Task: structure prediction
Amino acid sequence: MRRLKLILCATILSACSTNSGVVPTGSGTYIISKAEWGVNPTGSSVKVDALKEANDYCTRMHKEIEIVRATQKDMVPFKSEAQAEVEFHCR
Result:
């Protein structure tokens, strides 16, 4: 039982995420791709994080974000992570 508790704690503490950062795709369009493992991440929570990052990027340039496309995919336990992708312009 103790070993199971240790494994559970390690899993909770080891929530991982990947982030492409802001990547220019040409013609003033950018994309951010994020993925997150963990206890219960959702595609929408990962998408919100990506949208915040995109907005911060445009704000630093004194511009407003214009979303071109935003997608999300929920986590499937032991199979795939929660994912999101945001394509945007800064206007």
